[in-house]
Structure formats: C-alpha cells, structure tokens
What we know:
The chain is mainly alpha-helical and 313 residues long. It folds into two domains: 13-168, Orthogonal Bundle (Tetracycline Repressor, domain 2); 170-313. Helix content is 79%, strand content 0%. It contains 15 helices and no strands.
Amino acid sequence: MTDATNQTQMQEAQMGDYFALMKPRVMQLVVFTxxxxxxxxxxxxxxxxxxxxxxxxxxxxxxxxALNMWWDAxxxxxxxRTVNRPIPSGAVQPGEALAIGLTLSGFAxxxxxxxxxxxxAGLLAFTIFFYAVVYSMWLKRSTPQNIVIGGxxxxxxxxxxxxxxxxxxxxxxxxxxxxxxxxxxxHFWALALFVKSDYGDAGVPMLTETHGRTVTRKHIxxxxxxxxxxxxxxxxxxxxxxxYLVVAVVLNVWFLRGCYAIWRRTDADSEADNHxxxxxxxxxxxxxxxxxxxxxxxxxxxxxxxLTSWAGW
Length: 313
C-alpha cells in the first residue's frame, strides 16, 4: 500500500470523527422535522432558499452536538454507550470541538438571517443556546426533569422551518413543537430503563436514578397520554387531514400500548427478558415521531394536488 493511500485513509478517518462530533443521527431528525415545518407552511418558499434554510438548521444542529460533546466529554468517557465518541476516544481534542461548535453556530445563524428572516435566525440561535447551555451545562446534571425541559431544544426545528416560510408563529407550528416536546420524555426514559447503570455511573440525575424505575414507568405513561391528545389535535388543523389522522390513530395506539405495557411491568419482569418491552417501545417511539411528520408531509403533497382536505368533509 502506497504512502498516498495511507494518507488518504487517514484523512477520511479524521473527517469521519469530525462528522460524528455533530451527532448525525440527531441531525437526521432535526433536518426532517424542519423540512416538514417548511413544506407544510401555507406560504411557498423558493427551493434554493428552502435548501439554504434547511442546511443552516442542520449545521446549527451539528454545532449544538459539538458543543454538547465538548461539555460532556467527562461523563461520555464513563458511560458505555458514549465512551467511543470522538473526544473520549481521543480522536478529537476538546478545544477543537469547542471551536467547531462556536464557528458553525455563528455561520448557521448569520446565513439563515441573511437568507430568510430575523425570527427564523433568532429561533435557531435560541435553540443552540438552549441545548448547549441551558440543557447541557445546567439541566442535564442538576435535575431529574432534565429530559422534560431539555426536550424543547429538539422541538424547535419544525417551528424554525415554519418561521422561514411565514416569518411568524402559529397554532400549527406550536403543536408541531408540542408533539416533539411531549414525545421526548417517554422516548428517552424508555432508553434509560435499559441503560440504567450508565447514567448512575456518570452521576447524571436521570429519573431512573433519582426516583427509581417504578416511578419512571409511571411518568412514561403519564406523559404519553397528553402526547396522544397533541398528536390528534394536530390532525384537525390546517396542516392535518384524513390521511394524517388515520396514521396518527394507528401510531398512538401502538405507542400507548407500549407505554402501558412498561407501566405494568416490574423490575423482575424487565430483568427476566432483558428489558424486551422497554427496548421495543423505544424503537416504536422512533417510528412514532417520523410517522407523524411523514404523514404531515404527505398531507401537504396531497393538498398540492387538491386530493385531500378537511374542507371537503
């Protein structure tokens, strides 16, 4: 193998490390929900402007991820599921992560402001600040409600997408925000139930550690009930419709059944089957969110062809 080939492979590995720093899995969700918020808005956007806007939101999400990994490097090195992240593994230095996060944040906010409007840029700036400072630096290590309040950071992207198109906020964008906000606690608490030792080892006051798994199970079901109400309410707004409502009913029955099953279980039940129900419900929660926003996207496409609307019912 030649020296040039070795050099190329080394460069590719480094690029992969920097990309991982921006939490690409989280970025996928951010990009998708922001795109849906943009597309379902009642005001059309130039495709190039829309592309730039979504790119800025994605870069902003990546910046938030880099800043979060910079701050959480100490606990990431302790938890099994995060020990191989770029900083604790030694692939990226903390100072590099901080510089990347700050640079990308500034780039995304300024470009979004220049390409769209002040509200969209302001919401993006607040989202980055909320995730990097309010959640990562304060809530995550200080309260068992970290996931509840911190969930707002992941809920803003569709609202930003809507603001790009309309320069405003509406009931529809608030409900899209609320859907993600209410979904976040049961989604992450289901995860916490089967990676329970990680958070305790790192000293993170996750609800499973501070109040126990029985209380966590109750909270999962408690948050799932209003989540169902928000999801169905969204179906009767201007961006909803018959198709969305059918999908929402199916997904909410599916997810609610999983949360109810978790609520009924004991620690002995979970240990006996290696947390099978909790793991399955966590996976269902991922389909749940993508399914709702996917259905909103389909409704928007159908409306463009005059094929479905509550006005005709």
